[in-house]
Write a structure and sequence with these properties.
about 140 residues; mainly beta; 11-stranded antiparallel β-sheet; 11 strands; globular
């Protein structure tokens, strides 16, 4: 089971699959995740156990992001203002791991969450039009 990376019932400002024209240049049928409209600096929690990978693309793409991978599932949490863990660190569901922001190609403060299923190191359903991402609201 996975949990939302935010407590309560945060506002979804862009759902999975929305805005196809915006995401067509990236090769997607629509938005490949969920965006939560939250203030910058909101604490983000690990939705599941895994190993952390931190990436900073500056003002491009996802900006400051954190990927959590446990070999069966992968979460990408993006547009962060701060990451509270280090590359290679084991993290556990519910751990505070980051703070939300507006880094990368972002129109304002929010948290982007992409979720994928992994099997034998391979993203499943990679040809689904979303690079293997799935609507995480179906499993949270």
């Amino acid at each position: 089971m996975i949990f939302s990376p935010l407590p309560g019932t945060p506002l979804i400002t862009q759902g999975f699959g929305q805005n196809p024209a915006t995401y067509a240049p990236f090769g997607f049928l629509g938005h490949e995740g969920i965006d939560f409209g939250i203030p910058e600096g909101t604490v983000v929690y690990a939705p599941h156990d895994g190993v952390a990978t931190v990436k900073d693309e500056g003002s491009q793409n996802y900006g400051l992001s954190l990927t959590i991978d446990d070999g069966k599932r992968r979460s990408l949490l993006a547009h962060l203002s701060q990451v509270l863990v280090t590359n290679g660190q084991a993290i556990y569901q519910g751990d505070p791991i980051a703070k939300s922001g507006k880094s990368g190609m972002s129109s304002g403060p929010h948290l982007h969450w992409t979720f994928k299923i992994i099997k034998n190191g391979v993203v499943q359903n990679k040809d689904n039009g979303y690079g293997g991402a799935m609507d995480v609201s179906e499993v949270t």
